[in-house]
């Protein structure tokens, strides 16, 4: 390649990029000015001024956020079109910008006019002659990659004296060969045609994106979220977009993609964080996870939601006028059943005292009492603290963690397990909830299920009047006090964070990543957030770690019931070198995984290293890790069986050669958490690697990872497909 020519072209592009940055500064200044004007207008204290201020400040603030975010490779694409279409090049960027004459300077990658940038191919150039990708560091153009799409049109242009040199090896290969760091990057500059179709698919019903490892499902889904926000901002920003992924580590891995595309209004949540107010990171062991994830839990929890609060009174007795009035077990049982038949338990709170008064009044026989009448009877009872205390203790307002807490007692659990869980399964659950254990990721859908089964406590603002009418709030009692009563029944567990109300759960769009791993209970949980939403679902069944795919499929169908389907399939593996993927695919075939095998496009000439029968494991791992870390510039993952995680972290922390690359390893020795900080070299378990990628992977004792659970083979397949450059396995 002629260096002078390259420099000349870079210089010409730099001049354009400089112009864009000047414009960007001016637009940012204008946006800030707009924000200030909005503030001032808000000081005029009439209503119109305030509404107007909110709208202006909101718009301006969003624009500022967008422009700030756009600093990473703001301008990345250029299209030279046949002159019959335009003799000006068309520039594509992360956001759209107009110059001071309001002429288009930069086209947003999501705009219809940018679609051709991704869809044109040499076979179907769509009047594009040359597609150019600019590589930049901040505002500095550092490289150019061209693709010639229409050589005949180029010849014609050259005959007219127009020069369009073709430079570089092609943008995609350059992009795929880059070193990996700890976060995923956007692919706006190199989205491929089949990916573009999935990104721009209209948002109706359920869009599923399938494909084997490394085909870009995650990154495509994130670009789709950005695309949807662009096309219908009002709907998706006000209704919300929820992105759900497998783990906190994964969410941190993908968290920068959307902001780098100028989008910040998306809720990114791992499966342990889907319920507002809860945050679980710990996983139960596979046998417990299999029980907690099963749809059978829904039956069990429905029963639990109807249980009488453990420790609550089952008898009430009062003298009134000439009568002894009693509520015994039988009477209370009838009132309970009647109330339960009318709707969710917490929603019945305003009716409880009325129903009990009915049952008591029916027993008034004495003449003096009948003469005074029902109204006087109610007045007397509702000013009687013993009656009010009984009502609150017998039918306390409940929150879902409290009800789950009841099931920690084996006798209470046994009451709801008949025909649902075996005795051994009950014992496993009891053990998992014993002691001071924090909530697990698998507990979160159980709490959500209970939230819906018991309903929200009527809200003070909306329903205060209702409650007041019952007398429950008389004498200075309020909802706060009701909740305190509930707490006193909650057997000392620590799972009572504030949770939003269930009516606040729904989103306008729900995006599920690694969908093959959702358990039936998790499908029910996310399903409730997307009843009226459109959906994007990405996954690869061969990578599933859920042992009962048929049961998960039923729950998935129920969650998406009645929605139309649109399916997209991705067929190229952009992550692994061809050599690494060939090894992984051969493994999948050998162990009988029904895998969707994509084509890996990038060859490195370096096959995986497979070491067997190593005598000294630590020495062998050390040699392998140092070798890989010395040969790749980016991240290295040491993947180990769960039982070896602490040991492996201790090894890593003790190797002086890697002290700078793995400062967090020491802290991870005793904890059961995986990679933190910005370490280049990390220890992970098989399940931790889901969705992630590394330049190099060293797999320690793959046969043990395989034997760890019923789906260990799928987990090992995932592990073998995480490396971009080098893979070593040690058995
Ligand atoms: N068009 C593209 N241009 C550049 N890089 C791409 C492109 N498509 C995908 N990639 C890269 O390929 C890698 C794999 O992408 P991604 O993680 O989205 O795949 P996936 O299908 O979700 O993988 P898995 O199912 O194995 O977790 C990422 O580094 C991503 O940036």
Automatic annotation (TrEMBL):
<feature type="binding site">
    <location>
        <begin position="211"/>
        <end position="218"/>
    </location>
    <ligand>
        <name>ATP</name>
    </ligand>
</feature>
<dbReference type="InterPro" id="IPR000212">
    <property type="entry name" value="DNA_helicase_UvrD/REP"/>
</dbReference>
<dbReference type="Pfam" id="PF00580">
    <property type="entry name" value="UvrD-helicase"/>
</dbReference>
<dbReference type="GO" id="GO:0000725">
    <property type="term" value="P:recombinational repair"/>
</dbReference>
<dbReference type="GO" id="GO:0043138">
    <property type="term" value="F:3'-5' DNA helicase activity"/>
</dbReference>
<keyword id="KW-0547">Nucleotide-binding</keyword>
<dbReference type="InterPro" id="IPR014016">
    <property type="entry name" value="UvrD-like_ATP-bd"/>
</dbReference>
<dbReference type="GO" id="GO:0005829">
    <property type="term" value="C:cytosol"/>
</dbReference>
<dbReference type="GO" id="GO:0003677">
    <property type="term" value="F:DNA binding"/>
</dbReference>
<dbReference type="GO" id="GO:0016787">
    <property type="term" value="F:hydrolase activity"/>
</dbReference>
<keyword id="KW-0378">Hydrolase</keyword>
<keyword id="KW-0067">ATP-binding</keyword>
<dbReference type="GO" id="GO:0005524">
    <property type="term" value="F:ATP binding"/>
</dbReference>
<protein>
    <submittedName>
        <fullName>AAA family ATPase</fullName>
    </submittedName>
</protein>
<keyword id="KW-0347">Helicase</keyword>
<dbReference type="InterPro" id="IPR027417">
    <property type="entry name" value="P-loop_NTPase"/>
</dbReference>
<feature type="domain" description="UvrD-like helicase ATP-binding">
    <location>
        <begin position="190"/>
        <end position="577"/>
    </location>
</feature>
């Amino acid at each position: 390649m002629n260096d002078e020519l390259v420099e000349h072209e870079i210089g010409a592009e730099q001049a354009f990029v400089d112009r864009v940055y000047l414009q960007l500064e001016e637009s940012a200044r204008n946006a800030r000015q707009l924000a200030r004007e909005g503030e001032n207008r808000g000081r005029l204290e009439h209503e119109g001024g305030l509404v107007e201020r909110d709208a202006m400040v909101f718009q301006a603030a969003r624009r500022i956020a967008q422009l700030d975010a756009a600093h990473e490779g703001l301008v990345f694409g250029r299209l030279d079109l046949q002159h019959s279409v335009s003799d000006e090049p068309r520039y594509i960027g992360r956001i759209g910008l107009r110059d001071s004459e309001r002429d288009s300077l930069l086209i947003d990658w999501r705009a219809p006019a940018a679609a051709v940038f991704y869809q044109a191919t040499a076979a179907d150039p769509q009047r594009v002659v040359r597609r150019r990708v600019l590589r930049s560091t901040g505002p500095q153009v550092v490289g150019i990659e061209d693709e010639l799409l229409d050589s005949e049109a180029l010849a014609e242009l050259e005959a007219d004296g127009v020069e369009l040199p073709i430079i570089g090896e092609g943008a995609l290969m350059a992009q795929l060969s880059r070193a990996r760091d700890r976060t995923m990057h956007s692919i706006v500059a190199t989205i491929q045609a089949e990916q573009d179709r999935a990104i721009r698919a209209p948002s109706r019903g359920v869009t599923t994106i399938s494909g084997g490892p490394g085909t870009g499902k995650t990154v495509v889904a994130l670009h789709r979220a950005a695309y949807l926000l662009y096309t219908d901002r009002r709907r998706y920003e006000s209704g919300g977009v929820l992105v759900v992924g497998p783990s906190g580590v994964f969410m941190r891995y993908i968290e920068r993609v959307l902001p780098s595309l100028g989008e910040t209004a998306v809720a990114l949540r791992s499966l342990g964080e889907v319920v507002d107010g809860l945050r679980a990171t710990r996983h139960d062991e596979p046998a417990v996870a299999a029980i907690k994830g099963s749809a059978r839990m829904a039956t069990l929890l429905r029963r639990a939601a109807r249980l009488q609060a453990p420790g609550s009174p089952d008898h009430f007795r009062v003298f009134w006028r000439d009568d002894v009035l009693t509520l015994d077990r039988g009477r209370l049982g009838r009132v309970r059943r009647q109330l339960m038949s009318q709707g969710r338990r917490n929603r019945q709170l305003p009716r409880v005292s009325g129903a009990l008064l009915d049952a008591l009044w029916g027993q008034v026989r004495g003449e003096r009492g009948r003469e005074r009448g029902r109204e006087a009877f109610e007045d007397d009872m509702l000013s009687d603290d013993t009656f009010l205390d009984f009502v609150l203790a017998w039918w306390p307002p409940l929150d879902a963690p409290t009800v789950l807490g009841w099931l920690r007692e084996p006798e209470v659990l046994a009451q709801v397990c008949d025909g649902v869980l075996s005795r051994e399964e009950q014992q496993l659950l009891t053990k998992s909830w014993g002691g001071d254990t924090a909530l697990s990721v698998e507990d979160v859908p159980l709490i959500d299920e209970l939230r819906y089964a018991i309903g929200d406590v009527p809200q003070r603002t909306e329903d205060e009047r209702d409650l007041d009418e019952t007398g429950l709030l008389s004498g200075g009692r309020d909802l706060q006090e009701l909740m305190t009563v509930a707490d006193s029944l909650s057997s000392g567990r620590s799972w009572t964070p504030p949770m939003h109300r269930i009516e606040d759960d729904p989103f306008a769009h729900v995006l599920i990543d690694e969908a093959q791993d959702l358990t039936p209970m998790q499908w029910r949980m996310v399903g409730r957030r997307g009843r009226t939403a459109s959906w994007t679902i990405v996954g690869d069944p061969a990578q599933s770690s859920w042992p009962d795919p048929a049961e998960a499929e039923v729950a998935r169908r129920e969650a998406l019931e009645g929605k139309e389907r649109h399916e997209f399939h991705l067929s190229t593996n952009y992550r692994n070198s061809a050599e690494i993927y060939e090894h992984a695919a051969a493994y999948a075939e050998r162990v009988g995984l029904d895998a969707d095998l994509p084509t890996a496009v990038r060859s490195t000439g370096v096959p995986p290293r497979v070491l067997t029968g190593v005598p000294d494991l630590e020495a062998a791992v050390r040699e392998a890790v140092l070798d890989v870390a010395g040969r790749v510039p980016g991240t290295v993952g040491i993947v180990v069986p769960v039982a070896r995680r602490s040991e492996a972290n201790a090894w890593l922390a003790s190797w002086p050669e890697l002290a700078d690359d793995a400062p967090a390893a020491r802290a991870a020795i005793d904890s059961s958490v995986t990679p933190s900080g910005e370490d280049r070299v990390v220890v992970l378990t098989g399940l931790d690697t889901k969705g992630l990628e590394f330049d190099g992977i060293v797999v320690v004792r793959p046969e043990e990872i395989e034997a760890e659970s019923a789906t260990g083979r799928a987990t090992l397949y995932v592990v073998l497909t995480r490396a971009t450059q080098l893979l070593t396995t040690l058995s």
